[in-house]
C-alpha cells in the first residue's frame, strides 16, 4: 500500500449499498441521543464557521464519532477521517460517512500496521488546517514526516488521556509546533466520559464477550485515575469485590478511603479473577504476575494502547494458544493453567467483537467540547501559541448548559451580591 495512495472505504467494500444503509441507521440512532451535537450543528449550519478549512481526524470511527465528523462537515469544512485503533472502526459507519460530499473516510476495521499508517498518511495528504486526534497519531505523523505542513495548521484538539500525556511530553521537549487543546482534561470530558463511559462500556463489553457475571468476582483494577475510578465504581455496583493497584500514593489512599482493597499487583495477581488495566502506562501486568495467576482468569485492557499487559511474555510462557470464544484468546501454560485475554489486550470497550464504545450520552458531551474547540481554534487561533492548551472554561460550561437544558434541568445562578462576595478578600468574621 505504500507506493499507491490508500483508497477511501467506499473503494474497499463489496456490498457498499447495504453497508451505507446500516451505517446510516446506526448514526440515526446515535443522533437521537446527542442533543449537544444537534444544537452545535444548528449553529454551525447557520454560521458556516469552517468554510474553506480542511479538518484531518483520527478517531474511533463508529456512529457517535460519525456525528461529530458530520457536524464539522456541515459547518463548512472538508473533512478527512481515519481510525485511531485497528479494531474499533465500524466499516458500515465509515462507508456511510464517506457518502457525504465534504467527507472522505479511510477508516477500516482489522487493518494491519502498514494499512493503519497508510490511512493516516491519506488523511494528511488532504493537508489539514486543523487536526482532531484521539491518541495523538496525527500530530505525531505530521511532526515526524510532514513538518512542511505545520505552517498551514491553525491548531488541533486531542480527545484522550494518553494523547494529552504524549502531547505534554512533546511540549516539554519543545517539539510541539502548533497549539492543541487538551479536550480530555475538561470537566465535561473527564468526569463523565472517563469515569462513567469507561466504567460502563468496559464492563459491558467484557460481560457480553464472555457471558460471565461480575457478582462475587475479585476484580483487579490497575490504575485509579478517572477511568480506573469509573471501572471500580461500576464493578462494585455489580457486586464484585474490587481490588485496586496504584503507584501514586494519594490515589492509592483515595482508593483505600473509598473502600477498595489496595495492594501491589504481585499480590493481586494471586487472588484476582478479572484484571482490567486503565493506567496508560506499559508493563502493568508482566511475567511475574502471569506466573501467579489462577486458572481461568480474564485479562483485559481499557487504556488507549495495547501495552499494559505484556502479551509477548505471556506468549513465551504459553505452550498453547487458542480462540476460546470470539474475542477471547486462551493461553495455556505448562502447568495446565489457562489465562484468557480479551480483544488482544486492546482497549476492550471498543475493540472486543461486541463492543460499541462509550455510551452515546457521554460521547455527546466529549464531542460537543471537541466541536466548540475547533470553532475556538479558528475564531481565536492567534491567541494560542504552539503547545498544549487547557480548553477555556467558558466553552466547557457552554456545553454543560446545552446538556442541562436538553435534560430539562434548571439550576441556580449567583446573585450580584454573591458574585461580589466571592471576588473579594476583605470580608472576615
Ligand atoms: N471513545 N470513543 C468512543 N466513539 O464510541 N468510546 C470511547 C466511541 C473515546 C474516549 O473519549 C476515550 O478518551 C478514547 O476513546 C480512548 O481512545
Question: Could you describe the 3D structure shown?
Answer:
By secondary structure, the protein is of the alpha/beta class. The protein has 17 helices and 15 strands. The protein has helices at residues 16-32, 35-47, 63-74, 91-98, 113-124, 137-145, 161-172, 187-210, 226-237, 249-257, 265-271, 287-290, 311-317, 348-351, 360-380, 393-407, 416-422; strands at 54-58, 78-82, 103-105, 130-133, 155-158, 179-182, 218-222, 241-245, 261-262, 274-277, 298-301, 318-325, 328-333, 338-342, 387-389. The strands form 2 sheets. An 8-stranded mixed sheet has the order 9-8-7-10-11-14-13-12, sandwiched between helices. Strands 3-2-1-4-5-6-15 form a 7-stranded parallel sheet, with helices on both faces. Strand 1, helix 3 and strand 2 (78-82) form a beta-alpha-beta unit. Helix 1 packs across helix 3 (63-74), helix 2 packs parallel to helix 3 (63-74) and helix 3 (63-74) packs parallel to helix 15. The longest helix is centred in the middle third of the chain and has 24 residues, at 187-210. The N and C termini lie far apart (73 Å). The relative contact order is 0.12. It binds 1-(beta-D-ribofuranosyl)-1H-1,2,4-triazole-3-carboxamide (RBV). 1-(beta-D-ribofuranosyl)-1H-1,2,4-triazole-3-carboxamide binds at residues 60, 62, 64-65, 134-135, 159-160, 193, 197, 304, 347, 350, 357-358, 363, 366. Its EC number is 3.13.2.1. This is Adenosylhomocysteinase. Substrate binds at residues 134, 159, 189, 193. InterPro entries: Adenosylhomocyst_ase-like_sf (IPR042172), Adenosylhomocysteinase-like (IPR000043), Ado_hCys_hydrolase_NAD-bd (IPR015878), NAD(P)-bd_dom_sf (IPR036291), S-Ado-L-homoCys_hydrolase_CS (IPR020082). May play a key role in the regulation of the intracellular concentration of adenosylhomocysteine.
Amino acid at each position: 500500500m505504500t507506493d499507491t495512495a490508500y483508497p477511501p472505504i467506499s473503494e474497499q467494500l463489496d456490498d457498499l449499498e447495504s453497508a451505507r444503509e446500516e451505517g446510516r441507521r446506526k448514526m440515526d440512532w446515535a443522533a437521537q441521543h446527542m442533543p449537544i451535537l444537534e444544537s452545535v450543528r444548528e449553529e454551525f449550519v447557520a454560521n458556516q464557521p469552517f468554510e474553506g478549512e480542511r479538518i484531518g481526524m483520527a478517531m474511533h470511527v463508529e456512529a457517535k464519532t460519525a456525528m461529530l465528523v458530520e457536524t464539522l462537515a456541515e459547518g463548512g469544512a472538508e473533512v478527512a477521517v481515519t481510525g485511531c485503533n485497528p479494531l474499533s472502526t465500524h466499516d458500515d459507519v465509515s462507508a456511510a460517512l464517506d457518502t457525504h460530499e465534504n467527507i472522505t473516510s479511510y477508516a477500516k476495521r482489522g487493518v494491519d500496521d502498514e494499512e493503519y499508517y497508510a490511512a493516516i498518511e491519506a488523511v494528511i495528504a488532504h493537508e489539514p488546517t486543523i487536526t482532531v486526534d484521539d491518541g495523538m497519531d496525527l500530530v505525531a505523523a505530521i511532526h515526524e514526516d510532514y513538518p512542511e505542513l505545520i505552517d498551514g495548521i491553525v491548531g488541533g484538539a486531542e480527545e484522550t488521556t494518553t494523547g494529552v500525556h504524549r502531547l505534554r511530553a512533546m511540549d516539554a521537549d519543545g517539539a510541539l509546533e502548533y497549539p492543541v487543546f487538551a479536550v480530555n482534561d475538561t470537566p465535561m470530558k473527564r468526569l463523565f466520559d472517563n469515569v462513567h463511559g469507561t466504567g460502563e462500556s468496559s464492563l459491558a463489553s467484557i460481560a457480553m464477550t464472555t457471558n460471565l457475571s461480575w457478582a462475587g468476582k475479585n476484580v483487579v483494577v490497575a490504575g485509579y485515575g478517572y477511568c480506573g475510578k469509573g471501572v471500580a465504581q461500576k464493578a462494585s455496583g455489580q457486586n464484585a469485590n474490587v481490588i485496586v493497584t496504584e503507584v501514586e500514593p494519594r490515589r492509592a489512599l483515595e482508593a483505600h478511603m473509598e473502600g477498595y482493597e489496595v495492594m501491589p499487583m504481585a499480590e493481586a495477581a494471586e487472588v484476582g479473577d478479572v484484571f482490567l488495566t486503565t493506567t496508560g502506562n506499559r508493563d502493568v501486568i508482566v511475567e511475574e504476575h502471569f506466573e501467579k495467576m489462577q486458572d481461568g482468569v480474564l485479562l483485559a485492557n481499557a487504556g488507549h494502547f495495547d501495552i499494559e499487559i505484556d502479551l509477548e511474555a505471556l506468549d513465551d510462557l504459553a505452550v498453547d494458544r487458542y480462540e476460546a470464544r470470539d474475542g477471547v484468546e486462551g493461553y495455556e501454560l505448562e502447568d495446565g493453567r489457562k489465562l484468557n485475554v480479551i480483544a488482544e489486550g486492546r482497549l476492550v470497550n471498543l475493540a472486543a467483537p461486541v463492543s460499541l464504545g462509550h455510551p452515546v450520552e457521554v460521547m455527546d458531551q466529549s464531542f460537543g467540547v471537541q466541536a466548540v474547540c475547533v470553532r475556538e481554534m479558528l475564531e481565536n487561533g492567534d491567541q494560542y501559541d504552539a503547545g498544549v492548551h487547557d480548553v477555556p472554561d467558558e466553552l466547557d460550561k457552554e456545553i454543560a448548559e446545552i446538556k442541562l437544558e436538553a435534560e430539562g434541568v434548571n439550576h441556580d445562578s449567583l446573585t450580584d451580591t454573591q458574585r461580589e462576595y466571592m471576588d473579594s478578600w476583605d470580608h472576615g468574621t
